[in-house]
Amino acid sequence: MQKSLALVAALLTSACAASSARQPAPPAPLRPTLARELVAQDPRAVRVFDGHSGANLSWEQLVEQAGASELVLIGENHGHPLGLACAAALFEDLIARENCAGLAMEFFERDEQSRVDDWLADLSDEPTFEKRTQRSSSGSTGGNWPAGHRAMLHTAKRAGRAVIAANAPRALVRLVREKGYGALDALTEEQQRLVFVPPWLVDGRYREEFNKFMAGDWGPYEADQAARLESVFRSQSLWDWTMADSLRKGLERGITPLVHVVGRFHVDHQGGTVQAVRILRPDTRTFVLSFVNEQAEALEEDDRGRGDAVIYVGK
Asked: Least C-beta-crowded within 10 Å: which of 36, 44, 139, 206?
């Protein structure tokens, strides 16, 4: 039976890759599944705001808008239970209505792709998968393996859908932070394949917010502070461009809509990952959903343009 399921999954993936046009499945009724079990409240009962006009959106409208896109970027607050339950619910509903929908995650790195694929194909069990990818659910936010992430991967596995380990390996990110992009030239071709080197570093609000977050109240930067900011932003950009390249490749395989779960700093207000995607694949139909860890009864002015849709999930 497991071999048969794996074969079906492979055929579905091949069919998506072979087709240049999406062929969505007939809409399925929205129903609580794994996501509904993650938190006490119904994750589909949250208030959703249009990120531009501030209008209220129903959950069904959110699913419809996300499903009409090629790339759905979900900006999460790491480990937030309600936010991740909502993300898992949206992914379930997109899987139910779209034959070629798939998942990509910031939280798995490109050199872990074979380990993810082994688990999806039942070549390893879950404890082995967690050990090989160094997943841990310890801590108040679920460590690097919170319940919402697990639910999304299980949803993909049940449906026979692709999961893309999208991020750059930490060792290479650290190398770039310490020695610059030129240090990658000394690596093997296989190691270089695991990252996408930014052709340039973006400016604008994203860079300004990054400096503000990293520097705090430094004020005018001293030379050593400016150098440190530059090195850390260099590594941050390697994440953004590598994830964007992973998403481009997934879309080229016909995985649409491709749902990418990522820390919201990378996608809020046209963040670095969004900008990199638009440069690498300019015509991509992109939908950004941002979860804000505050309470609000209406779209706050500071959150206008944060994403195409905004959901407030509380502290």
From this structure: 139
What is the tally of structural domains in the chain? 1
**Which pTM was predicted?**
0.89
Low-confidence ranges of the chain (pLDDT < 50): 1-8, 11-12, 18-32
CA distances from 261 to 73, 203, 215, 257 (A): 6, 23, 26, 13
What is the domain range of residue 264?
2-312
**Rounded CA separation 186/252 (Å):** 29
Torsion of CA 39, 45, 47, 50, to 10 degrees: 110
DSSP string, 210-255: HHHHHHTT--SPPHHHHHHHHHHHHHHHHHHHHHHHHHHHHHHTT-
Q: How many CB atoms sit inside 10 A of residue 227's CB? A: 11
Helix (H) or strand (E) holding 192: helix 189-192
Give the closest residue to 239 by CA, choosing from 271, 191, 269, 204.
Answer: 271
Q: What is d(CA 281, CA 201) in angstroms, rounded to the nearest whole number? A: 17
Strands 71-76 vs 258-263: parallel, antiparallel or unpaired: parallel
Quote the CA–CA distance of 200 and 215 in Å, as a whole number: 22
